[in-house]
Amino acid sequence: MTKAYAAAAPDARLTPFEIERRDVRPQDVQIEILYCGVCHSDLHMARDEWGGTIYPVVPGHEIVGRVTAVGNKVTKFRAGDSAGVGCLVDSCRECKNCRKGLEQYCKAGSVLTYNGRDRISGDITYGGYSRQVVVHEDFVLRISDKQPLAEVAPLLCAGITTYSPLRHWNIGKGHKLGVIGLGGLGHMALKLGASFGAEVTMLSTSPAKEADARRLGAHKFALTRDPAQMKKLTGYFDYIIDTVSAEHDYNLYIRLLDTNGVMICVGAPPTPAQVAVFGLLGGRRSLAGSGIGGIPETQEMLDYCAERGITSDIELIDIASINEAYTRMLKSDVRYRFVIDMASLA
Ligand code: NAP
Ligand code: ZN
Ligand code: ZN
């Protein structure tokens, strides 16, 4: 049995729980989990805010650890290697998206790291708030030992979720990029956007985060609750990445786009948004979405970050503080990713 933390119902606190991990199949990698980042999606999912949560749920999809065993057909990993697991643990490998390395958009439905269903056994998948995980080698990422592993963990979701749209839309030099929400995803969008050469503006509800935003790479900072500051930015941005986790007015931000500008939604509030179409057709603006990233691009992002010395700014916590971390996340009190030290799960 493997020790874990789970939520038993939407309104339940996370508490200790034991899970059974599968035996290592020929192409499986068994990983001792050292650190797991805390994504706002974990909270949405633990509380069934998106619908479809199967209980008990063990969240966690920003996993880094050490390989402890491999199946006899594994070629990419050996015991002792550092390894990572993100939001996906399997997909069909055959559809047109899988063949392009876009496993997150698998036509047959990719298997999520938690609250998914194993394609062979049909068992529910359990995430990284646990001591050990077994994953097919195709979905295990190589992690550089040059960087502190705890700070690398959030790259597995927050990193790739912001890297992927920045790359897809070729955002960089000569572009004005706005990032809404300075949390886990937002702080990675600042770091990566700035590293690609874009002029980056932080759009935040928290005045206290301004100094940090600038340190993380923002060239400008605007308070979204100040109508005067927002008005000044009308028509300003080529791209906006929206990382907000809660209900908010999309129209307010669409107005900040220049002609042909694109607002990319990565934040996933549970309630549908009301979008006035006039904000889009005046100026031929687009409202787009982007979901995590595929496995090849996740490896590319990890390698890019290792080369550039980019990691996440984290607050390391014990697993016993996870409920408090959720409470703080809901108050936008994150600086800028909670990461669980899995050694605390004794
Ligand atoms: P987070 O760390 O909690 O950060 C969210 C930030 O949004 C907050 O820190 C706050 O920043 C801002 N915010 C919160 N409530 C707001 C409101 N009512 N109005 C305006 N701004 C508000 O969350 P996260 O882990 O970065 O995740 C963000 C969202 O992305 C979640 O919905 C998550 O599920 C989703 N997500 C999507 C993908 C994907 O594939 N697309 C992947 C991972 C996560 P300020 O204090 O600066 O205002
Ligand atoms: Zn996530
Ligand atoms: Zn597929």
Question: Could you describe the 3D structure shown?
Answer:
Strands 3, 4, 5, 8, 9, 16 and 17 form a seven-stranded mixed beta sheet that branches. Helices cover 24% and strands 25% of the residues. β1 and β2 form a beta hairpin. With 346 residues, the chain is an alpha/beta fold. The site of one zinc ion (ZN) has 9 residues, from α2.
How are the elements arranged and paired?
Elements: E1 2-6, E2 15-19, E3 28-37, H1 40-46, E4 63-70, E5 82-85, E6 88-90, H2 96-99, E7 111-112, E8 132-136, E9 141-142, H3 149-152, H4 158-168, E10 176-180, H5 184-195, E11 199-204, H6 210-216, E12 220-223, H7 227-232, E13 237-242, H8 250-254, E14 257-265, H9 278-281, E15 286-289, H10 295-308, E16 314-317, H11 322-330, E17 337-341
Parallel strand pairs: 10-11, 10-13, 11-12, 13-14, 14-15, 16-17
Antiparallel strand pairs: 1-2, 3-4, 3-8, 3-17, 4-5, 5-9, 6-7
Helix pairs in contact: 4-5, 4-10
The protein binds NADP nicotinamide-adenine-dinucleotide phosphate and zinc ion (2 copies).
The site of one zinc ion has 5 residues, from loops.
Short description, anyone?
With 346 residues, the protein is an alpha/beta fold. It has helices at 40-46, 96-99, 149-152, 158-168, 184-195, 210-216, 227-232, 250-254, 278-281, 295-308, 322-330, and strands at residues 2-6, 15-19, 28-37, 63-70, 82-85, 88-90, 111-112, 132-136, 141-142, 176-180, 199-204, 220-223, 237-242, 257-265, 286-289, 314-317, 337-341.
